[in-house]
Specification:
The chain is of the alpha+beta class. It has 11 helices and 8 strands. Bound molecules: adenosine-2'-monophosphate.
Length: about 280
């Protein structure tokens, strides 16, 4: 045991490369520019109805923009003070595998199929730099049988991935009256780093794991960044309720959907891949 207690960051997350940040910022900017001059958009804005020639300046509406490189928060740990912070830092991939196997597309451990073995292979690949030490209690864990077969000890996904590179896939851009953000589709391997408690607005919400995954691109005056993820969850809740949004047309990178209440989503026809390092932000 180490003498010093571990010091947790303000938050864990994926930090985009400078180049990927620039590419995504540009895509976000193009989205705001196009939307601001789109007839269907202006139709929903009272001040623009009066003067149809007006162009809505969304860039100056979303005044609060993240400085430096962009990121996707996985867990806000608040230097260890946030609920579930320690648990997350110690998160083992078993926590994910056992939480909701159907949602992740995994098969129960009792009936191994290719999906499950893919998962195990992913773990092995992800953690291949870690070798079991004598005394590592691999055998007594419920999953130890399979794991020991591929010679992987029980692993801590968060620690094992710290400082490692990932490619995140951006599937859509969205705006609400409060925030603008990019929606991320996490892979199964990336979901191992996703906390179990993030995908809820209300404690009773039951949305697919990773629903909240996003990158904040901007916030309106007086709005905190945490809002972007909550806004994305609102979209997902509508989708879950069968609301597919009204298809307003094709703009720049894809098809534009309107969901009411100032909620717009651009579903990208070609996903944007961004490079990112999994790490912690200490302020
Ligand atoms: P974001 O992930 O939507 O951008 C620092 O404030 C970072 O942590 C921001 O990126 C912010 O939002 C995120 N954040 C702040 N408070 C949070 C919370 N309670 N839950 C989740 N993420 C939070």
């Amino acid at each position: 045991p180490s003498l010093e207690k571990e010091f947790l960051p303000m938050y864990f997350g994926w930090f985009l490369s400078k180049r990927s940040s620039e590419i995504l910022r540009k895509a976000g900017q193009a989205f705001l520019d196009e939307l601001g001059s789109l007839k269907a958009f202006k139709k929903e804005i009272p001040s623009a109805i009066e003067d149809p020639k007006i162009k809505i300046d969304l860039t100056s509406y979303f005044v609060k923009r993240p400085p430096g490189v962009l990121h996707c928060t996985t867990k806000y740990t608040d230097f260890g003070k946030a609920a579930g912070a320690e648990e997350y830092a110690q998160q083992e991939d078993k926590d994910v595998a056992s939480s909701d196997s159907t949602e992740l597309g995994h098969q129960p451990l009792t009936s191994p199929c290719s999906g499950y073995f893919d998962h195990v292979t992913t773990r092995a690949a992800m953690n291949s730099h870690i070798v079991p030490e004598p005394g590592d209690n691999v055998q007594q864990h419920p999953q130890a049988l399979t794991l020991s077969r591929v010679r992987v000890p029980l692993l801590q996904a968060v620690k094992a991935s710290y400082g490692k590179a990932f490619t995140l896939s951006i599937s859509a851009l969205f705006i609400t009256t409060k925030t603008v953000g990019a929606r991320i589709e996490l892979s199964e391997q990336q979901l191992l780093l996703w906390p179990g408690d993030a995908d809820k607005i209300l404690p009773t919400d039951n949305l697919p794991r990773g629903s909240r995954a996003h990158i904040t691109l901007g916030c309106a005056n007086g709005v905190e960044a945490v809002q972007t993820g909550l806004d994305l969850l609102e979209f997902v809740k509508l989708e879950k309720a069968g609301n597919k949004g009204e298809q307003v047309g094709e703009i720049g990178g894809g098809k534009l959907l309107y969901f009411d209440n100032g909620m717009w989503m651009l579903v990208l026809s070609k996903k944007i891949d961004v490079r990112a390092i999994f790490s912690g932000y200490y302020g």
